[in-house]
């Protein structure tokens, strides 16, 4: 009977190298034995893991889902061995992370090289997108989300505090005046973020609980916060954004903060999100710990 663990290892290596013979050489087994392992797994689970041709082997969609789980299983086994022998767990494998575009580019990207340098056996697959992904269905190890969390079936860990700011360029405020109340925004050009309920393109929420709702209008709406910040810097209008989007612009004087007689809405924090009901792999725990440590500075 063929060993299932060895079969899993062979399948992962084939997916990585794109070749059964290359995977066999890397694992010191014969190509014939490697093929037998793959065939045995495919018969057992009833689906093809690979598209095979004479030139290359590629992973099927079913294979991608299966191998994502297999990688997690093998990493858990390695961690269990390390814990039992009191050895430090080596962070390895592929870490798939979904991250909001602006937060990813402005906050994560500058510090990620240091993380990768610390863990040379790890590769990171980033999805820069403001859409809310389904971690399990889409095969992501974790996601980073800004603001309130709705899905209680997920595990969330705060990685950094976040507040909202109302901003405009000095030139815009010089031409149109500085608003003092939420109602003053009705006659001003407000740049709307299309994917937010509270900082959106039709109404903005104010007050710590977000219970003060002000209708807005403007000539620009976008599903990306950086685009709105650039427009605000150009003197087009007012933007309502998380602090990480405008910190540099405020520090340089390109934008100025507008303080109304009501506080901006609280969006609480930026969180790392993982699936409930399973122990987090070392690669996930390590990245979350790294972010908490470095973003607290």
From TrEMBL:
Entry's Gene Ontology BP terms: DNA-templated transcription
PANTHER family linked to this entry: HTH-TYPE TRANSCRIPTIONAL ACTIVATOR TTDR-RELATED, HTH-TYPE TRANSCRIPTIONAL REGULATOR
SUPFAM superfamilies: Periplasmic binding protein-like II (SSF53850), Winged helix' DNA-binding domain (SSF46785)
Record GO terms (molecular function): DNA-binding transcription factor activity; sequence-specific DNA binding
Gene3D superfamilies per UniProt: 3.40.190.290, Winged helix-like DNA-binding domain superfamily/Winged helix DNA-binding domain
Protein name stated in the entry: DNA-binding transcriptional regulator, LysR family
General function of this protein: NodD regulates the expression of the nodABCFE genes which encode other nodulation proteins. NodD is also a negative regulator of its own expression. Binds flavonoids as inducers.
Residues in the signal sequence: none
Residue ranges annotated for the HTH lysR-type domain, each copy included: 3-60
One Pfam family here: HTH_1
